[in-house]
## 1
Amino acid sequence: MISNLSDEYLTIKSLVRLKTKVEGSIFIATAIPVNSEEDVKDWILKISKEFFDATHNCFVWRIKKAQGESLKFSDAGEPRGTAGKPISSAIQSEDLYNVVVVVSRYFGGVKLGTGRLSRAYRQAAQGALQKAEKVRDWVTSEITLSYPLSMSGKVSQIFSQYDIRVKDRGFEKDATARVMVRSSLVEKVKNVLLEATNGQVKFNGKDKV
């Protein structure tokens, strides 16, 4: 692995869930690693369907980008500031990115008040995140390229050397590939591929971050 701390981030390895109870109310915190805002939407919909009978399904997601980050949250009907912000605080205190946390609450008949409610949401989220296995990852950009079939071996070696993740490949008249490259290495990888293929590699379209 090539080290460059500027674009690295900490995330969780896999889905984790933790159930807590406060004054009769049940809080089910689900934390999931995600790679894009599309992933976020899919997971929020999935968890909301799973806990369709919950009183509230509050969520927060935080994604690392090439420049800055994206952070959004929803109180989902709870008093303003009592769910989204506390969950967000839990994510930030663990210094995590590319994660969505959904906390599903089943009201137990006893009102907690804004202070206790905020603490309950934060503790539920933080408990799930602390339970999760942490892993380091990095921001990536999607590149689509084509090259002569005879160059497939050289290109594959470069993919391996730079930890490039192949999303799909094709082998017809020319070889094609859609890959995820560490954002800070995009230009370097392109130059290496051009040199290795004597300029025969072609990059198609605009890089997607």
## 2
Amino acid sequence: MTIIIVGAGSVGYYLCRTLITTTNYKVKIIEKNQLRCVVTSNKLDIPIINGDGSNINILRKANAKNADILVALTGKDEDNFICCQLAKNKFKIKTTIAKINNPKNMDIIKKLAADIVVSNTDTLSNIITQQLNAIHYHFMTHFTKGDTAIVEFIVSENSYMNNKKICEINWPKDTLVVAISREEKSIVPSGNTVLKANDNVVISTKEYNKKHLKKIFN
């Protein structure tokens, strides 16, 4: 899972630090100011591209075609607009998020460039996490007892689990598939049940298995 953040100002830096310390997502930064690139690279161990994120060649250098989310956080709304528009139209990035500095620009940016437009930067980290979870999986957080948890994943179309029987999958120890929800129907699974894309799979497992399960479903 890859996120490109354009702009390494205070908001961009804080967001990067939050993501790399709380998730396993790959984060890249594009920053125009060379000094800021140096300062950020000394603090965060992530790839940093020195350049203008509204330039198609810089986005290509950042391998934007393989990114899942682009977040434009520069101090200029017009640059954020162009970043998101290029990301969406040229590199087919699934989700684009833009920070706006002038609320008057919200409608035009949302209509023509960004999937999500935010002015309150405190919500950025939560929005990104929600978007990534929507792409591939999410955890059911309302039930955890001791070291046992109930988690829920969504089978993506490009997952190796798609069209496989439950018994054919190498599940981690102490893992049980409890239920499957498919097209608003509930399925009581057996070993011969075949998983399909967009299935919601409810699993009982140990806390320490959650990262392993995430890798399997991705």
## 3
Amino acid sequence: MDFALIMFSLLVLTGSIWLLDRLILQGKRTNKAEPWWVEYAKSFFPVILAVFVLRSFLVEPFKIPSGSMIPTLHVGDFILVNKFTYGIRLPIINQKIVQINNPARGDVMVFHYPENPSIDYIKRIVGLPGDVIVYRNKQLLVNGEVQQQKSLGEYNYVDNGLSFVHTSRYTENLSGGRSHEILINPDVPGLHMAAVADFPQREQCSYSFDEVRCTVPAGHYFAMGDNRDNSRDSRYWGFVPDKMIVGKAFFIWMNFSDFKRIGLTIN
């Protein structure tokens, strides 16, 4: 279900009735009460307009459905996404009309999944246009430079409410970006070759046992989940085109399972 399209349709419908009433119907009514459908349309039009503008151009809420971004984001986090920091885009078609900033290495970004644009993904940007990204033996290299990791000890969580996962927590310092936390599971292979085989080989990437090497093309980005061994990301389906970008995640406003997460900023 395309919520933006539904909102736009309601906006056009209520706005048309409001305009029709002002231009034609209002003058034809003497002392008669206005029809119920006109009254409802006039009441809802400004509310729908305000929500549509806010959601399309300023801030949009999302809910985190999976654990691919643990420990940064937890399942059930309700987050806010800045819609204008990477440029102003027309709603529905997502066409950029005003350029403001480009995504930076380390940003947590929401985008339309390239293989199915009706699905929204959230990952961290680790590769910018022109970067050479290598992920080898659970170690990230950007343009030949190892991105330093520091152990923070063990980390445990429950996956999908069913299975208990024992893993390790690290801080990772991205070149030109910010320090953030990641999870690495020593019991899981660094690269799931079976998953890679499901997607066509791209000329910008090469795969070998436990390694992927990609050169990020112009206008695209390389995205990875912070939960490195539980994330389907650019290692498996390729790059994020600029035209698929939704916005930058910046704030957690609610989590009904853990109230301590309310009000946290997203690093």
